[in-house]
Amino acid sequence: MEKPTLYIVATPIGNLEDMTYRAVRILKEVSTIFCEDTRTTRVLLNRYDIKTSTASFHAHSGDSKYEKIVSMLQSGLSVALVSDAGTPGISDPGTELVSFVRECLGSTVAIVPLPGASALVAALSAAGIPSHEFIFFGFLPHKKGRKTLFDEIRSVDRTCVFYESPHRIEKALESLSGSGKKITVARELTKTFEEFVSGTAEEVLASLVERKVIRGEFVVIVSSFEKKVINEYNNDHE
Ligand code: SAM
User: Is pTM, for the whole model, over 0.90?
Assistant: First the structure.
């Protein structure tokens, strides 16, 4: 008998075709899909004719929701967790649930990731920027600690990546101006108006403002202008 399983399922970050065959099959097979927002996920489920019942699980879910999921697993049912977009647990709810289930049920259940879309990886994969190592900040805090993190991003000699909302992208780019860093903004990944804009912080901001495209979703990558990976590669093979 297979163990009851909590599946952590990545979903598309825009283009609904970015679903894996496995994700569709598992979402059809589990007894309940726990969603950050059931209405958002329903659009995806309808697209793939997935009729499984849904229930909400989000950042503000209380203890009773955690206990409900544990008791479903205890009674032998398998369930899935999805967020609104991308990979649960990556700047999205999921981490506390996984840790709670592990603590309560240990090896009596399986916790299985179903990999798929994540804005972080999609942005890095097509940016052409060294990513053999990088620091991911998720969302930067709005107030307390924000300046300290920008100081770190400006000074550290590693690729830095963070998520930003359209409300704060201008301010974020202003905080990086004069840093001498190469900024790459990946906007609206997998969607109609997907684009990568690179340059100094001032150039990127001017481009977004001029074209009136301070909207949508953004991943910001901060790197050095030197092409370190290429140099290292050449050195290794000389
Ligand atoms: N769990 C998601 C993942 O794996 O990428 C991230 C969720 S987080 C709440 C949402 C943020 O991710 C957005 O504010 C934006 O910074 C980034 N993001 C999500 N979808 C994106 C897209 N299509 N294009 C660019 N950035 C995106």
Answer: yes
